[in-house]
Amino acid sequence: MSLFPRFLLALLKPIILGVVVAALLLFLFPEFRQGEGLKLNWLNQERNVPQRLSYYDALAISAPAVVNIYSVSLENSNRLFRSRPIERTNLGSGVIMREDGYLLTCYHVIRNADSIYVSIQDGRFLPAQLVGFDEITDLAVLRIFEQNLPVIPQVEEPNLRVGDVVMAIGNPLDLGQTVTSGIVSRLGRNGLANYFDRIQTDAVLNPGNSGGALIDSNGFLVGITNANFKTLDSRRRVQDVNGVNFALPYPLAKRVMDEIIDNGRVRRGQLGFSGNGYDNRGILVESVVPNGPAAEAGLRVNDLLLSVNGEDTIDLSKTLDLIAGTRPGAQLELVVSRNDELITMTVTVGELNPDMVFNS
């Protein structure tokens, strides 16, 4: 081979090799096609730590509105040489519901209190005024007169479900604001009350949590914490049951608060009978209060209540809510089945008081 072809071949080899390498680089690194250049960050990239699951943001918007409540009562001593009354302080929590200073707590927290004080998380310590209370739901409305108050986030219908993550915020044992978490264990009446539902949760509640907030994972108020389940041991001593705690649903608590603010108290309707669901048809009447509204209307034991004001009674809870939500003095039309005969009667709704033991 002559000198010139050898020289030409030697010149073409690196050119061909360069084209092949360039084609491979364009194929392997598409950013070269846009002229971005090769990014070699992977050479000095730090270990990528996954972001932790946290409810910090939810608590940041809700926890400031949960307050510590101290109710002070003066009790006279029966000791012979002690003339001064004993001062006792009851501990609880509360939730600021409105910018004008209205807040919710549990009635048992401030029952028989001579003075009530509220400690806000920003350090303010303020006297509180009792607006009113409702013994049936164990709720009380307080008011503090202060500006720039934090208000807990609220949504009209929380649509809570069993299994939803919830957090309880309060001041257990006066340790300072504390958060516990769990899930919604059950929704319903839980056998504890015939007039309202409760939220059952395994979020831990201790003395001082009563009246605090139960919030969802977004920070919205879903309930007011008020009780943990108790039982008696073999020696008849009261013991707490771990993992079984209760809260009043937000829609109920809000309704009670609004009525107390507007009217000074909560008025509920009642008819004066008790019963249970029967064969998915209605409510089988088991007892009737003598001289009560239902008795005066003609309702008898063993009647099968089929409808109230045109609403069927298949859902016992729904029927009880309908009656309780009816203004005392109003009239309801009942349709009952008695000995396979349909009977329509009109009943004037009475007013429920906390001592009532009947379903409706």
- DSSP helix fraction: 10-25%
**Overall tally of domains:** 3
CATH evolutionary superfamily of the largest domain: Trypsin-like serine proteases
Give the mean pLDDT: 85
Give helix and strand order, one letter per element, not per position: HHEEEHEEEEEEEEEHEEEHEEHEEE
* Rounded Rg: 33 Å
Give the structural class. alpha+beta
CATH 2nd-level architecture of the largest domain:
Beta Barrel
Reading side by side through the largest sheet, how are the strands ordered? Answer: 1-2-3-6-5-4
CATH class of the largest domain: Mainly Beta
| CATH fold topology of the largest domain | Thrombin, subunit H
Helix segment tally = 6
**N- to C-terminal distance:** 115 Å
- Report the count of strand segments: 20
Uncertain segments are: none
Amount of beta strand? 35-45%
General shape:
extended
Q: Major beta sheet, specifics?
A: 6 strands, antiparallel, barrel
Transmembrane segments: 7-29
Family: Belongs to the peptidase S1C family.
InterPro entries: PDZ, PDZ_6, PDZ_sf, Peptidase_S1_PA, Peptidase_S1_PA_chymotrypsin, Peptidase_S1C
Protein name: Probable serine protease do-like
Question: How does this model look, in words?
Answer:
The chain crosses the membrane at residues 7-29. Keywords: Hydrolase, Membrane, Protease, Serine protease, Transmembrane, Transmembrane helix. The chain is an alpha+beta fold and 360 residues long. It has 3 domains: 56-78 and 85-143, Thrombin, subunit H; 165-252, Trypsin-like serine proteases (Thrombin, subunit H); 269-351, Pdz3 Domain (Roll), CATH 2.30.42. Helices cover 18% and strands 38% of the residues. It is built from 6 helices and 20 strands. The chain has helices at residues 3-28, 56-62, 107-110, 250-263, 293-297, 316-324; strands at residues 66-75, 86-96, 102-106, 115-119, 125-134, 139-143, 165-170, 178-188, 198-201, 213-216, 221-232, 238-249, 269-270, 273-278, 282-288, 304-308, 311-312, 331-338, 341-348, 350-351. Strands 1-2-3-6-5-4 form a 6-stranded antiparallel barrel.
